[in-house]
Specification:
single chain, alpha/beta, Rossmann fold, Rna Polymerase Sigma Factor, Chain: A, four-stranded mixed sheet, about 45% helix, about 15% strand, globular, binds nicotinamide-adenine-dinucleotide, binds magnesium ion, DXP_reductoisomerase_C, 1-deoxy-D-xylulose-5-phosphate reductoisomerase activity, NADP, isoprene biosynthesis
Length: about 375
């Protein structure tokens, strides 16, 4: 019986994980410790009742009474607020899914690692903001981080037992998002609704818009560097509109190992859940003949300046990742709220990086969570419209 917790259970990734656990309910394989969510109390309470969770936590203190009422008679405890999220992450668990969106996911994930849990990491923001901090916490507690982002799960699987020393390059694929084929001059007028559609994946709104701007892929490049310990020049991005190949690992002997599969997050989540074994998952089979062909293009950095920024961030090191992520989150908030245009997000992030780097430089890697959160706040203020 493995004890598991899901942070961000009510979101797109979280709900896919809940779906997998539900399918194995009755096998006695899992005991659910904590489930967390945001404003959707009804969904959180329904999940907690269904999975007989020990505790359900909403991020919002003002919703505690609602959550209590929704859980009445269920045997599941209710709690609310950021401190309650940390307390939930301190409850002993064998496997913890980090699927909160944004840098709000950093503290709970780090806490789970410090307690020795395996951290299944969907929250890429954590590695972008504080990769060295997370890796040190995992090492100190004798545990590990497993990738849940589909491209990183694909790299992890394609690498297998091969040594990193034999790896020449790692290529992650990008669908190109909502505006892949739009004329460039239309992008400035792109609406939030238009940016919130994705050709292949059903995901939360924020990551869907980040796919249209390629900030998602930019974050994933940094995530790959932090997760696998690659050099920046080893990481490539190729646009692959079909999203069937998720990543490729190319070796010094000329061999390239690709990972293929239907675009369904339950594969990457389920792979981490069953690791180091493989378990049956409700994911569609690949039918390559029906697909007919797979296509690839070079990413266009005029259309997607975020990819260039990712390289600059890796070059700068230190706190640049935390600044990049926070400025991106702020610019995205401002785009969603109608304060800035779609095409203003990248310049905001670039200007924020320049401004904070000019003030203080990005020199040192983060030593503690507090430092990361301070830089995060400073970057949000600088980036705000
Ligand atoms: P989502 O918006 O669907 O869900 C986010 C979850 O986080 C919800 O449970 C929400 O209640 C919770 N949340 C939001 N703000 C919070 C806060 N301030 N404090 C605590 N909880 C908060 O997002 P998603 O698409 O499931 O993505 C979650 C994470 O996984 C993101 O980091 C994303 O980049 C990553 N990811 C998602 C996908 C995908 O297919 N959706 C794929 C790869 C990686
Ligand atoms: Mg991804």
């Amino acid at each position: 019986m493995r004890r598991i917790s899901i942070f961000g259970a009510t979101g797109s990734v979280g709900a896919n994980c809940v779906d997998l656990i539900r399918r194995e309910q009755g096998s006695g394989a899992y005991r659910v410790v904590a489930l967390t969510g945001g404003r959707n109390i009804a969904r959180l309470a329904e999940m907690a009742r269904d999975l007989q969770a020990e505790i359900a936590v909403t991020a919002y203190p003002d919703l505690l009474d609602d959550l209590r009422a929704a859980l009445a008679g269920s045997g599941t405890e209710a709690a609310a607020g950021p401190e309650a999220l940390i307390a939930a992450a301190q409850r002993p668990a064998d496997w913890v899914l980090s699927a909160i969106v944004g840098s709000a996911g950093l503290a709970p994930g780090l806490t789970a690692l410090q307690g020795g849990s395996i951290l299944a990491l969907a929250n890429k923001e954590s590695l972008v903001c504080a990769g060295p901090l997370l890796r040190r916490a995992a090492d100190a507690a004798g545990t590990r981080i497993l990738p849940v982002d589909s491209e990183h799960s694909a790299v992890f699987q394609a690498l297998g037992n091969d040594s990193l020393d034999s790896v020449k390059t790692v290529t992650i694929t990008a669908s190109g998002g909502a505006f892949r084929d739009w004329p460039l001059e239309r992008l400035a007028a792109a609406t939030v609704a238009e940016a919130s559609t994705h050709p292949n994946w059903a995901m939360g709104q924020r990551i869907t818009i980040d796919s249209a701007s390629m900030f998602n892929k930019a974050m994933e490049v940094i995530e790959a560097k932090e997760f696998f310990g690659l050099r920046p020049d080893q990481i490539r991005v190729v646009v692959h509109p079909e999203s069937i190949i998720h990543a490729m690992v190319s070796h010094i002997d000329g061999g390239t190992i690709a990972h293929l599969g239907a675009p369904d997050m339950r594969h990457a989540i389920g792979y981490a859940l069953h690791w180091p074994q493989r378990g049956a998952l409700p994911v569609a089979d690949l039918d390559l003949a029906a697909l007919g062909r797979l296509t690839f293009r070079e990413p266009d950095e005029i259309r997607w300046p975020a990819l260039r920024l990712a390289r600059e961030v890796m070059q700068a090191g230190g706190m640049a990742g935390a600044v990049f992520n926070a400025a991106k989150e702020q610019a995205l908030d401002d785009f969603i709220a109608g304060r800035i245009a779609f095409t203003e997000m990248s310049p905001r992030v670039e200007n924020t990086l320049s401004a904070l780097s000019a003030q203080a430089g990005f020199a040192a890697d983060p030593d503690d969570l507090q430092t990361v959160l301070e830089w995060d706040q400073a970057a949000r203020q600088e980036a705000a419209a």
